[in-house]
Specification:
single chain; alpha/beta; 7-stranded antiparallel β-sheet; 5-stranded parallel β-sheet; disordered C terminus
């Protein structure tokens, strides 16, 4: 080989190797490689075609000097064109200008082709022993140098490009792994955090946790159903935070808080000049939440005309601002919430059935506190921790006060509990919150002004004792199972067994009679 040619090749390979840091932006790096071949060698036209790992189709990733007529379709199948044929043979090729048929060097050995009559030549790009693309050029050297040298050096460059592709795939695979790992950590952190809606261990909350894991990564709409104050807004935030949309906005609209005309503007936006005095365009929440999530609270209050517009958006992802004919498109996940059963609204004719189906692709019921009483103690602890951090003082409920709160109906649910705990912590002088500090309304009979009211405490104690005994009898006097039924820890139920003097009774009931059956309290 000519010494000058050898030196030129080393220079070109060195310049190409300097681009390895750009492998993450593969198309840009490939374009730069073609530019080097054009600047340093005699190449006038060239292209790099790669197989898409997801679709399996071929895609032109970079080209140089090709006219629009010379460029093949941007994406095509493996069985289309010469490039597709090359991928199946994995061999260098030459296309004479008088024929569209390629000449494969390993078969024809046609090394006497006049270089001036060559239209195109190429080499396969190999990845892990299999062809994944083609590097094609019109020539690399002048006509005085044989095209065997062109093919030889072209194959070397194609090998380097294969390394670029391999590095790109490895980095992307690593990024995907980190993304999935990050998603798992987010779920884990959310579970360990004290988000109101997932504090507790009741069956309803456990089910909500599982649904959150499944729903967060997908695009489908979610419908949250539950009474006011149960934590639907927070659950919507958790779903958004655990989704790939977390880096984009989370916006919310309370559909019951404004009249229909203002709600339409708030949701879809308004164009400049849409009404007198409107001097500038106002984007709606849908535009502002592009890429993220939009939470529609009390969606059942939407008027039928607005329901029709929302339905169109959910189906087509398109809408128009008020006063505009321009159709806009955004990518937003809609999370809706309702305090009523939408089926009842549909039957009453006040809600569209097709919209209820689209909103309720994944329905989640958020239970009221009275249906998850076992979660009340950990929720109280959560709010106590919050106020302790805020006010710099440690507070705690006495056992009697906590027992009353666990039996309270909580019509305002989690929101009411949060407000009550904060109010108590502000009003109470010391660190202990007892019966005397609780408002009278938390008990139907009224909470006594003094904790020494033994008649009330006796009734409360007897109610708790009956519940403990009933749970023990249901579970054959096995304390661990009764504790799980009541939402208590083994230590907590053990304390109550000792407090109520039930140790002897448990021993008797767990003793088998001659018939081999446990005795019931009904026969005592």
């Amino acid at each position: 080989m000519d010494a000058n040619l050898h030196e030129l090749e080393l220079k070109v390979l060195h310049e190409i190797s300097q681009l390895i840091g750009q492998a993450l932006n593969l198309d840009q790096a490939l374009q730069a490689i073609l530019a080097i071949l054009a600047d340093s060698l005699a190449m006038q036209r060239g292209a790099v075609t790669l197989k898409d790992p997801e679709t399996g189709h071929l895609r032109i990733c970079a080209s140089h000097g090709l006219s629009p007529e010379e460029k093949p379709p941007g994406i095509y199948r493996l069985n289309e064109g010469v490039t597709g044929l090359i991928l199946r043979t994995a061999q260098p090729f030459v296309i004479p200008d008088e024929s569209l048929e390629p000449v494969f060097l390993n078969k024809t050995k046609s090394l006497d082709i006049d270089k001036g009559r060559i239209s195109c030549m190429g080499a396969p790009i190999i990845l892990k022993g299999a062809p994944t693309g083609v590097l094609s050029v019109d020539r690399l050297y002048g006509e005085k140098i044989s095209f065997e040298d062109d093919i030889r050096f072209l194959s070397i460059v194609a090998t380097l490009i294969g390394q670029f592709v391999s590095l790109n795939l490895q980095v992307r695979a690593r990024e995907e792994h980190l993304r999935q790992e990050n998603q798992s950590l987010r779920v884990e952190l959310s579970e360990k955090s004290h988000d109101l809606v997932i504090v507790g261990a009741s069956p309803a909350i456990m089910e909500a946790r599982q649904l959150i894991k499944k729903l967060a990564p997908v695009k489908a709409s979610v419908l949250l159903m539950g009474e006011s104050g149960t934590g639907k807004t927070l659950l919507a935030r958790v779903i958004h935070a655990l989704s790939p949309r977390a880096r984009y906005p989370f916006l919310k609209i309370n559909c019951a808080s404004m009249p229909e005309n203002l709600l339409e503007i708030e949701l879809f936006g308004m164009e400049k000049g849409a009404s007198p005095g409107v001097v500038r365009a106002k984007p709606g929440r849908l535009e502002e939440a592009d890429g993220g999530s939009l939470f529609l609270d009390e969606v059942e209050t939407l008027s039928l005309p607005l329901q029709a517009k929302l339905l169109r958006f959910l189906q087509e992802r398109e809408f128009e601002r008020l006063g505009s004919a321009r159709t806009r498109s955004v990518e937003v996940r809609v999370i809706a919430a309702t305090t009523t059963d939408l089926t009842d609204q549909v039957n009453a004719g006040s809600f569209r059935e097709d919209l209820s189906y689209l909103l309720g692709v994944f329905p989640i019921r958020v239970p009221p506190l009275r249906d998850r009483r076992e979660d009340i103690p950990p929720l109280l602890d959560h709010f106590m921790d919050k106020v302790t951090a805020e006010y710099g003082r440690r507070f705690y409920f006495t056992q009697k006060a906590q027992a009353v709160l666990q039996r309270y109906g909580w019509p305002g649910n989690v929101r009411e509990m949060e407000n009550l705990v904060e109010r108590l912590c502000i009003m109470v002088e010391g660190s202990e919150i007892g019966l005397k500090d609780l408002p009278a309304y938390v008990s139907p009979a009224g909470v006594p002004a003094e904790p020494e009211d033994q008649a009330f405490l006796s009734r409360l104690k007897e109610m708790e004792k009956r519940e403990i005994m009933a749970a023990l009898e249901r579970h054959h006097w096995i304390q661990s199972q009764a504790a799980m039924d009541l939402g208590l820890t083994l230590r907590q139920i053990g304390y109550r067994v000792k407090q109520f003097g039930l140790e002897r009774l448990i021993k008797e009931q767990r003793g088998l009679n001659p018939g081999g059956k446990l005795r019931s309290l009904n026969h005592r």
